[in-house]
Amino acid sequence: MSTSQETSAEKLVQQTPDEPAVSLRSRLAGSNTVWTGLVLVVLCALFSALRPDAFLTLFNVQNLLVQAAPLLMLAVGMTFVIITSGIDLSVGSVLVFAGVVSAMTMEALSGGDATGAGWGVIAIGLVAALIGGAAWGLLNGLLVAVARVPALIVTLGSFGAALGAAQLLTNGIDVRTVPSTLRTTMGTGTSFGVVPNLVILAAIITLLAMWLLHTTAFGRYTYAIGSNAEAARRSGIKVTRHLIAVYTLTGVLAGLAGFMSLAYFGTTTISGHSNDNLNSIAAVVLGGTSLFGGIGTILGSVIGVFIPAVLDAGFVMAGVRPFWQPIAVGAVLVVAVYLDQRRRRARNNR
Fold it and tell me: Is 239 helix (H, G, I), strand (E, B) or coil?
């Protein structure tokens, strides 16, 4: 038996019954997901105390959930990308582009006014949004995985290009003839009397993403590539193909977010998503996903999504100027990355 094996065996024999409990407490104390959840609870309690008559009302909770639903789709895709040690700065612009493509497709199929369009046209509009998002995701994946251009540069370029393409298609004017059926059913409709349909859709997609990341070979490969891409390649994982698939998946989810935004607002809102890139990255990092790759969960990203959303709603209700919201999110993001670096250094020094 080797010396390291003997040492491990001795530690196992000498372990006291209390050690597993201590280990569990230590793991919980060091979990970003737990701390992020506590931050979210504190923020909700704070804004509830400031505006008890408004913050925890049914209307505000529904509104908060609906507004967070498209951002959740961006964060789910971003989780996969960041776990591979990548980044995607283009998701907000891809959301806008997909919404424009979807709206213009439905408008073209309806003779220039899609207000009265039925579900057939809406379904084609959804497909157009998903294809539009997938196209940008595929382009990002090819440039990152095949051309070996750094993801930061590739997606920064896509950020400007996708937004510019959306403005070229519309001449900078929002498309406003969205099917009323889409708005009343998906955008503002509810099920079971209180649950917004957009939230149900977002929850279903999120659960599927959890299953994909945490229980399938696709998820295991994603973690392996983020931990050590070269080791993953030598173990037989097709790293190039997998990275292309991850970025394409992120594009598809951004396309879905664009369609959801279109359904809720009833317009393409070209200039209304300037903070989505920052908020989605912040949500993922706050939820415990490491910017250095190999670590992260969908559940953590779900919790992280609601911190920018709660800050936004809470600032409005508390009478704080909304310009403080991106400042607060940016500050919390820097702190989260700093703490992640400290944990990594501590782990490497053991």
Answer: helix
